[in-house]
Amino acid sequence: MKLFLVLALVATSALASQRRYDGYQVFEVNPKNKVSLEVLTKLRNERSDVYDFWTDPRNINLPVDIMVPPAFASTFINLMRTFEVDYKVKIADVEAMIEAGRKDIAKPIIRKEPRLSRAGTPRYSLNWESYSDLPAIEEFLAELSAAYPNLMTTTVVGQSYEGNNMNLVKISTGGTGKKAIFVDGGIHAREWISPAYVTWLIHELVENYAAHPQYVDNIDWYIMPVINPDGYRYTFAANGDRLWRKTRKPNPGSPCIGTDMNRNFGFHWDEGGSSDLPCGDTYNGGVAFSEIESQIVRDTILSVAPQTMVYLTVHSYGQYWLTPWGYTSDYPADYDQLYDLAVRAVDKLTALYGTQYTIGTSTNVLYVASGGSDDWAKGGAGIPYSYTVELRDTGRYGFELPATEILPNNAEMWEAFKVVAEDVMAM
């Protein structure tokens, strides 16, 4: 009987342990010619079940970050040598980095009454000195909405596949005829810095309203902090996977779970840069808007699209400010206007700490990626200015950006968002 009890405890422990990445390495590889670029692209499209491309093959002489399992390290190195692809180890042990990052996860706060600052104003469960799970983010939204009902409302606009809330925050002083900005975050689950910025943005607009009332008096803000709540929650779960990217709906006929939401939007869907394989990290879902989460985001954006001038979807990593299109190397007809606003926003961002961002269309600066929310927001919903913002860093830490960088990242990005807001007020 004791033996069975021990075995049961071991099994339970195994089920409750997060996926480990002992011995996994991240290689930075550099394709020097067209052939080596094609080899990496083929590897990305056909073996993403083995090799996790943290950044995608883009152009010749542009580095690519690839996580390689220990069992495939020799095969991978031999392949790089065969096709004369320069490579180096960027992260020697991914699990060691993940373990180091666990200290950056916020501990649950249990309290019977709201904390107050010396000035008597509420203090909230998020302090942006650590990364917070979905329940903590929802608690923050509820607290802030209750404290500032005349500025902020939080609405559940739907539920994810696993039943998590899809929250929409509206920040407004009321009135009609106002232009709007739509912001979302957390479309890729492992990009923790994204919800960390988007929640901070909500805090800045609401809690610090008095410091810059014009941004709320003259603009309605619609913000969805985590649009892939199942995936995001899974990256924190005891039995989850810190580096999970996709949604969590099972794929019929496949042992693999999830769709890449940012390949699932229905504007030039499946026209390159996505995978038709359910096990691929860029799996496009088999049909546009296959995911309930994508459908909810689509319908929410469409409900406010007539007043919305700017759509900003917040990702990581790489430090890019990207414009459509992602499905083609052609430029939008109004690219000059898109580019001009991006340049002025990034200039203000860089002025704070010197952080450098690259600006351009998704395809020409990074890679072809059809089915993205930014392309759909512009081409499908008709929002004039649509951007994907890839936050810090450029790959030293990748998705494990230390929590010490959250507040500096947020402060510089706020400088850029202020430029966007000022332009919207002038439109």
UniProtKB/TrEMBL annotation:
InterPro entries: CARBOXYPEPT_ZN_1, M14A-like_propep, M14A_act_pep, Peptidase_M14. One of its GO terms (molecular function) is metallocarboxypeptidase activity. One of its GO terms (biological process) is proteolysis. It holds the Pfam family Peptidase_M14. Transmembrane segments: none annotated. One of its GO terms (cellular component) is extracellular space. The keyword Disulfide bond applies. The keyword Disulfide bond applies. Keywords: Carboxypeptidase, Disulfide bond, Hydrolase, Metal-binding, Metalloprotease, Protease, Signal, Zinc. CDD domains: M14_CP_A-B_like. It comes from the Eukaryota. Its cofactor is Zn(2+). The active site is at E390 (proton donor/acceptor). Coiled coil: none annotated. Belongs to the peptidase M14 family. PANTHER family: FI01817P-RELATED, PROTEASE FAMILY M14 CARBOXYPEPTIDASE A,B. This is Zinc carboxypeptidase A 1. It comes from Daphnia magna.
